[in-house]
Amino acid sequence: MSKIYYVGDWAVMLGPVFAETPFNYAWKGTDLFNYGQWLKNAIESDGRHQVTSVPTWDFYKLAPGRYEQILDEYDAFIFSDVEAKNFQLDPHFFDRTKFGSKPLTFPDRVRLTVEALRAGKHMIFAGGWLSFNGESGKGGWGRTQLREILPVECLKFEDLRESTEGWRAIAIQPEHRLFEGIDLTQMPPVLGYNIVKPRAGCDVLAVWEGSTDPMLAAGESGKGRVLAYTSDPAPHWGCNFVYWDQYTQFWLNAVSWLTAESQDR
To answer: How far apart are CA 180 and CA 153, in angstroms?
Structure first.
């Protein structure tokens, strides 16, 4: 059984907020949403994979040394709506009790991620407002060493493309094993995606209709395999996608390709 560590696609909603007087603003509720439940359930559905789904803030707050343990323990990793700052910063930098007269540094989680993939771990990078370059550049993946392992190239400016009508996907390599049992012509429209560019040496397997923008791209780096899915595997972009009757098979194919011992493409 493969073990998968899935970061992202959680949210906290605070409110609504009531202004009862000019001096009194009252919060009336806190809700926690796990938007990653659909992807977790899909991957675990055949009993061959175990997914640990964690909010981005838990990933950010990992104690020094804990990420190295996780990288060693798990076979594959999924990052969705995880902006670069969660890799680059550590909450201890903002804990004044840690300040002192000696330099304060921690292991670079970007470097650790890149090295883990090249050593044989496998990864999926999925889209969203905080993925790839993201909204107003907040995703920032292309500004880090992650660009060396992504199977696509990030833009240098905001890369969101959104529409209430949405886009469907078109297979470029329909014979690829990732599309076994999958008919992309039946995929419902997604409400947005991150615009990225193809990367030399990697395969664009599908594009978004009416464009040459990659929808799904695959590559290898060292001993590891990596996929980029440029929309969101969860709502809101994926609010139609998660109810597709082939959603489960799509992600099972993706994870099976990643974690297969064979390098068969």
So the answer is: 26
pLDDT at 168: 97
Amino acid at the residue 214:
P
Mean pLDDT of 195-215: 98
Strand bridging mode 196-198 / 30-34: unpaired
Backbone angles phi, psi at 114, to 5 degrees: -60, -45
Structural domains of the chain sorted by starting position, each given as residue range(s) with its CATH number in brackets: 2-259 (3.40.50.880)
pLDDT score, position 14:
85
Query: Which of 89, 219, 194, 220 has the alpha carbon at shortest distance from 135?
Result: 194
Query: pTM, whole model, 2 decimals?
Result: 0.94
